[in-house]
């Protein structure tokens, strides 16, 4: 039986560190912690993605934007409500369908997005730093391939 009073902290077992899913979770947890410190302690990654997408497609409906940012419709509705409460977006009811909500950035939303974009780009650089300049494109391609593959598995396609 191991000595429980040992000064060294336990390490993750090799079977765990060899599991890709464990490494993905570790990366995600660490990324979130650095995001809070370096980008914004209030604006979340999904909120940032929604702001960027609303900026790119102003006046588009909430449901179509949800798929663009890889959120399910109920999560998207929650994110949009939070952004609206912070006065970063406005949601307007579509004239042809009272159930559709059209999203627009506010001036404050534009300002917050611009400030966050600079910090997010710096975080992107930090994320890919271990790969060097030459390996960044390959690393991003691999991450995108994994994300696309798993998005397909999650949607059942």
Task: Give a brief outline of the structure.
The protein has 157 residues and is mostly helical.
What does this molecule look like?
By secondary structure, this protein is mainly alpha-helical. Helix content is 64%, strand content 10%. The protein is built from seven helices and two strands. It has a two-stranded antiparallel ribbon with strand order 1-2. Strand 1 and strand 2 form a beta hairpin. The chain is globular, with a radius of gyration of 20 Å. The N and C termini lie far apart (48 Å). The mean pLDDT is 93.
**Please, what is the average pLDDT?**
93
- Biggest beta sheet attributes: 2 strands, antiparallel
Note poorly predicted spans: none
What is the spatial order of strands in the main beta sheet? 1-2
Report, as a whole number of angstroms, the end-to-end distance. Answer: 48 Å
The ordered H/E elements are: HHHHHEEHH
What Rg, in angstroms, do the CA atoms define? 20 Å
Helix/strand class: mainly alpha
Number of strands: 2
Shape: globular
